[in-house]
User: What shape does this take?
Amino acid sequence: MENLKKSILLSIRNLHVYYYTPDGVVKAVSGVDLDVYHGEILALVGESGCGKTTLGYSILNLVPPPGRIVSGSIIFEGRDLTRLSRKELDEIRGKEITMIFQDPMASLNPVFRIGDQMIDVVVHKLRVDKAEARKIVLNALKAVRLPNPEEIMHRYPHELSGGMLQRVVIAMAISTKPKLVIADEPTTALDVTIQAAILKLLVELAREINTTVILITHNMGVVAEVADRVAVMYAGHIIEVGNVFDVFSKPLHPYTKGLLSCVPRVDIEVEALPTIGGDVPSLINPPPGCRFHPRCPYASEKCRREEPPMIEAEPDHFVKCWLYAKR
Amino acid sequence: MEPLVKVENLRKYFVVTKGVIIKKRKVVRAVDGVSFEIYPGETLGLVGESGCGKSTTGLTILRAYKPDGGRILFDGKDITYATESELREIRKYMSIVFQNPYSSLNPRMSVFDIVAEPLRIHKLYSTKDELVDAVFKALEDAGLPPEFAYRYPHELSGGQRQRVAIARAIVTKPKFIVLDEPTSSLDVSVQAAVLNTLKDLQRKYSITYLFISHDLSVVRFMSHRVAVMYAGKIVEYANKSDLFEKPMHPYTKALLSAVPVADPKKRFRERIILSGDPPDPANPPPGCRFHPRCPFASDRCRKEEPPMIEVEPRHFVRCWLYA
Amino acid sequence: MTYASAKLVMKELSRARIRKLKMELRYALILLKRSPLTLAGLIIIGTLSVIALICTIAPQILPYPEDIGSATHPELLHCPPSPEHPFGCDYLGRDVLTRVIYGTKISLYAGALVVLLGLSLGTLIGLIAGYVGGIVDDVLMRITDAFLSIPGLVLALAIAATLGRGLMNAIIALAVTWWPWYARLVRSCTLAVKNELFVLAARIMGARSIVIMLKHILPNALGPAIINATLDLGFAILALASLGFLGLGATPPTPEWGAMISEARKYLPNMWWEATFPGLMIFLAVLGFNLLGDGLRDLLDPKFRRGARVWRI
Assistant: This one.
């Protein structure tokens, strides 16, 4: 696997996404570069307000107003998604790239039967006839291990539990055999026992149909359980990217180190938790230089003035920190 | 040592009506025979998934609800059916921190007034200076700088709001605080700091906590003893080390193995993945309430409800496997 | 150990309160700038209020102060608009401009009193019904429904007719028909606020019900009712004018707009100025309060706040 040359599916370059709010311009994503490889599960992790959701949404140009993609490019199979017309984007949305939201009801219409709305989507996106679409939907529902898929198709969303609904939504997301699935906190609203089952399912399905997954989450545990690679975000920047084993066993960025050590662990006994001092900076007036410098124990004069570049500190392990600059 | 809080066979039912035209009355047995003790200065972790009745248990102990059965002893006093005026005297010794800091603070009150409220209710000061001192001391203990007294909730971040709620909870120097998922809505870096503060406060003032959470990692960090709740009942109750090192109930085992661990090397560990959903509390299955999801369910589990069994000293399990 | 002197803290607290108020005001100004209609409403109501105030303090500065009452000027009977009498004169030769201006004071005060009485009673009933719940809620709400089931103006007419003619009686009659709306609104807001955790927290702290109601629920439940009251001020003025027109409101020499139109009705359409100008004033006042009320709703009620949303970043 490591020897094979990885091919890039999605390539984000110098992306800036701003929200024009009455209080000022919120620079939610500012200058993000990211490559997503074929068939991998990439976790986008960070605390609330770090820009991870905005980044995920901007791939399909779904940033809600007053937010806007200001500059940068998102190349998906040779096409720049930021420059596509509405119609062209519609061709990709829901077919080649699909989304799974935290709240399953965001993707389901409460007044239609589950089967009917799923069939509608498949008919519309794959341009097949109803009977064919029915088969596809049934298979998708079987694939997400729902008991009695036939019966589920006749149910209304409110008749199912949260865990079952999230399975339905996953079935919906994979029914068109997409190349990329963007999952935004898909298990955050669920109980741990259900969460474990859903995550397992998501990974298995992604491998089965060879789909790439971008998993947006705040939970380091979830990342460690399922991701191949991880991109850590802080205040609108990606500050560390690497293989999940590398990042967790040897985090480079001081923020990643802090983030990993301050989570209580169910498998380890600790007396006091290490903390990261200070607060997340405002994205209207982010600090100059490195955005983490006000909270960083290693901050130097350079960090306060100049924004660090992405540095490949170790093979395929990138970090945005002056500590790793070649002298 | 006498327990500070003793709960015996506590029950709390809610009547819900369903349906638009034909109203169906259903009884939801949110808390259905829960017993435990909390000793002075310790933390009892009450862990379970949403809808298992853990929050209702906490609120009923504080007598925010009238219990439907059982007994609540606080500091040796039976408060199960105490009237509101009888309770008022006791209320200054107990308080609560809620999960949602956005709803738990009155948006029209300054932080000072919010923290001062319990003191004003119980008239626990003789001069204004005393009141001011107590409020600022509580803010300091909760980890907030004094200038925050003059702010309003909308000016604060989630973590800061939660610290205001903590200051309000400790300002009367209570013996007992119910912490109802106090950090579930916070970011991990903020959560760590808040949890440390809560632990420090316990040490400093020997406060007794009932720590309610769905997050086993947080419970492990905070608690001395742990009770695991499932569908209105406690299924396992033990010292922390026993419960985490040697879980016995199949549900506890599944819960422990389901928690995501922030270490990718452990991702290939053996895990128990449960199928199905927790039961509808208005219509729980007969016998053991966990049997429809239990990999070890026998015929007996389907018919008879298991009792609490003391498998090892002070390690209780509600499961036929240990009978 | 002392942290700060109580005096200093209290001073800081009131300063914080003012800071919060200022911030809200600044926010209001920003929204006002974006909504020219609200601004127009504010200007209309502001002007009318200033006029009402001047009429209270110094009625003598009106062009013909004696015309407020029942003065007669035979030489000016039905005199059409002229430079001396820009709005003309009425059937007793009184200056219509003077009377219309003085009528502003009467209508504004009377309208405000109607709304204030209705709001107070409605708030009391709604708050108790919503907070106590159960049978109390059922009884109070059925009474409210009973009032709502009779058309407002018919009920007001009946009450005004029973009480007899007079401005105060008209005010009472209208307030009686007005309160149920506020009661329902305050009740529903109370029910919403009652579920907030700070109310539960106060109960667990041991706060008494009356304190919870007044300190925690009322301030957070009153907003929508106040917005509605602003909207209603216009309608109250209209309703008062209607009663005046039907002869159940202010008694003749009083220059109440409705009564003026009623008196001038006989001389339409030839002496159009006598009825038109009071009518225009009613129109202006109702329009002003409506624009202002709509703007206030946008301002205070997050549900109606245009363009505002929770950012997900």
Remarks:
- The longest helix of chain A spans residues 192-208.
- DSSP finds eleven helices and twelve strands in chain A.
- Residues 8-85+180-187+211-324 of chain A form a domain with the Rossmann fold fold (CATH 3.40.50.300).
